[in-house]
């Protein structure tokens, strides 16, 4: 049975990804940071279906906590086949108002978190001579978003990290790919006003926001045998918002 470690799995896209992988027969290590109650609820739902899941609290921007999480995953399930770097935070602020602290928090979670988790799982994947790493970026990492410069920079960094690491790890049979979702209905967008939402829907050729399941299915595809010849690629479920 393959094992997947999913960061930021207490809510939104990460939660749906954990459900989809567990129901597809994976052992799932679902990471959370602040949302303990939601993580425990996910654990009990999937356990009640007889599925294989553990939860683990760790801040992905903290290397010591990431190392402890990866060690727990390997000792509990014996292997780590897939890493999904999904944990993220966003913030809407005009550029001049972004403090050094804001910058560090957004870059540390969205980009350094990916570095921390990739480096921590690598010894296990190298030993197994196979692995899949799937990083969650954003369309804003492709196009840039006004009033989200720190978020856009971090997500663009995730794409650069993906491409470089894919080249380095390809010879070790480890595929590294990226998912860059469009606007997805999760708590991350709960602060957007109805007028903004309407304008964004109108700008989207498919005339709707994406669901967390839309993204989870793309992630599951990249982990599957059907995607064995994909590496260093960016797949963007975005309803045609970016073409
Ligand atoms: P969300 O509903 O706000 O969920 C964010 C998740 O990340 C939560 O599970 C949260 O866990 C976790 N997280 C945040 N900081 C963390 C940290 N320091 N360590 C570990 N986990 C942490 O957001 P979402 O929409 O599902 O976003 C998931 C990913 O998709 C993010 O990388 C986001 O940037 C990306 N994305 C989202 C959209 C969108 O429109 N929603 C579009 C493009 C890309 P806790 O609550 O337990 O702390």
Description:
Helices cover 48% and strands 14% of the residues. The chain is built from eight helices and seven strands, in the order βαβαβαβαβααβααβ. The protein has one domain (3-235): Rossmann fold (3-Layer(aba) Sandwich), CATH 3.40.50.720. The termini are far apart. The model has no long low-confidence stretch (mean pLDDT 98). With 243 residues, the chain is α/β, with parallel strands linked by helices. It has helices at 12-23, 36-48, 63-77, 100-128, 139-143, 149-169, 194-203, 212-223, and strands spanning 3-6, 27-32, 53-57, 82-85, 131-136, 174-179, 234-235. Helix 2 links the parallel strand 2 (27-32) and strand 3 (53-57). The site of NADP nicotinamide-adenine-dinucleotide phosphate has 30 residues, from helix 1 and strand 2.
List all distinct small molecules, including ions and cofactors, that are bound in this structure: NADP nicotinamide-adenine-dinucleotide phosphate
- Average per-residue pLDDT, rounded, comes to 98
Structural class: alpha/beta
Helix content: 40-55%
Superfamily at the CATH H level? NAD(P)-binding Rossmann-like Domain
User: What is the tally of beta strands?
Assistant: 7
CATH class: Alpha Beta
The end-to-end distance, rounded to whole angstroms, is 37 Å
Tell me, briefly, the overall form. Answer: globular
Largest sheet: 7 strands, parallel
The CATH architecture term is: 3-Layer(aba) Sandwich
Instruction: List unreliable stretches of 5+ residues.
Output: none
> In which order are the strands of the major sheet placed?
3-2-1-4-5-6-7
CATH topology: Rossmann fold
Question: Rg to the nearest angstrom?
Answer: 17 Å
What is the percentage of strand-forming residues? 5-15%
Number of domains: 1
| Number of helical stretches of at least 4 residues | 8
H/E element order: EHEHEHEHEHHEHHE
């Amino acid at each position: 049975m393959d094992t997947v470690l999913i960061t930021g799995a207490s809510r939104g896209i990460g939660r749906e990804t954990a459900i989809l992988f567990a129901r597809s027969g994976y052992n799932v290590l679902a990471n959370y940071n602040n949302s303990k109650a939601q993580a425990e609820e996910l654990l009990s739902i999937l356990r009640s279906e007889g599925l294989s899941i553990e939860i683990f609290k760790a801040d992905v921007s903290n290397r010591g906590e990431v190392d402890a999480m990866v060690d727990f995953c390997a000792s509990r399930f014996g292997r780590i086949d897939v890493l999904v770097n999904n944990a993220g935070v966003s913030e809407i602020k005009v550029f001049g108002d972004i403090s050094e602290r804001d910058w560090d928090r957004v870059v540390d979670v969205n980009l350094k978190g990916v570095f921390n988790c990739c480096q921590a799982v690598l010894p296990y994947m190298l030993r197994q001579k196979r692995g899949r790493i799937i990083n969650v970026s954003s369309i804003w990492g492709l196009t840039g978003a006004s009033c989200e410069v720190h978020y856009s920079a971090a997500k663009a960094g995730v794409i650069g990290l993906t491409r470089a690491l894919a080249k380095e790890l390809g010879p070790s049979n480890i595929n590294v790919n990226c998912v860059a979702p469009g606007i997805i209905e999760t708590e991350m967008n709960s602060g957007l006003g109805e007028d903004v939402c309407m304008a964004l829907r109108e700008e989207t050729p498919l005339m709707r926001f994406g669901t967390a399941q839309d993204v989870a299915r793309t992630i599951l595809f990249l982990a599957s045998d059907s995607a064995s010849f994909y590496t260093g690629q960016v797949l963007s479920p975005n309803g045609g918002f970016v073409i």
